[in-house]
Design a protein that fits this description.
The chain has four helices and eleven strands; from the N terminus they run αββββββαβββββαα. It is an alpha+beta fold. The C terminus is likely disordered.
Length: about 300
Amino acid sequence: MNQNYQANVTPQICKVQTDRKLIAVYDHLRPAALTHYAQLHAKGEYKENDRKIHSLIKVTIQDYTNGTGDKNIIAQFNLAPEQVQFILTRITAGFQEFEWSQSKIFGTPDAQGYATAQQFSISRHANDSSGRPMKSPWRLQIVNGKGVKVHNQKGGAYMKSGSFIMEKNTFIQLMDMDLYMLLKRTDSYITNWEAYVAPSMMTNGKQAYEKQQMEWQAQNQSGTAQNQNASYQVQEQNQTQSSPYQGQSQNQAQNMQYQEQFQNYVQNGQYQGQVQGYGQNAQYQESAPANSYAA
């Protein structure tokens, strides 16, 4: 085997080649951010080089009917993993007639307002226009070009109707077995990619989620404790202000003062009575000798 061939590393998952055309699928799968670990696939929740990252499967169709090199036409389109698996189910379910298409516009518009645009379509028709059974009933087409990018109120973007300008147009006809092999291998790769990425992502994601929950719980408990302390302080202040004992102690002190004053008054009254008694006795003593001398 050629050493140069061995040295080349490619993300190509599978390809199907006919006499003058080739279709291939490539791994552009990307893991989700830790904050969205449970979805496994990136869905635009983070950016790299100012571009939202999505987990995708790139599909290319080459048409070298007119030659190779500069004459070789290559068009590409990015499918979501679930879209690849959806198309596969149309084959396994045995659909005789099937049509599906999608278009997208992305990137920064140029000076004229045009951004990169892609169109993808796939169809199966059992018979041709003459009614004869088709050997290769599947037709896949990719069109690349540009269009005017318009933003909607929800922040999304779509291509303005009638603004698409085609730059590359390729298609390929495939038999049931060829398309099944292409999609089945791609589906198998997606499944194994998920099995490879999931363990570490789920472990790290669950640990981060549990830590977040514990921090939130601690914050809530701290906030509840602070609210309870504040409530207790308010209750204590209210109890202190409205306590009946405080008024009673003041009244008791005043009553004790009144009792002491009253006792003093009583004692003073007794002393006054004694003094008056002494005065009266003295009068009697003075008058007695006078009477006796007169007799």
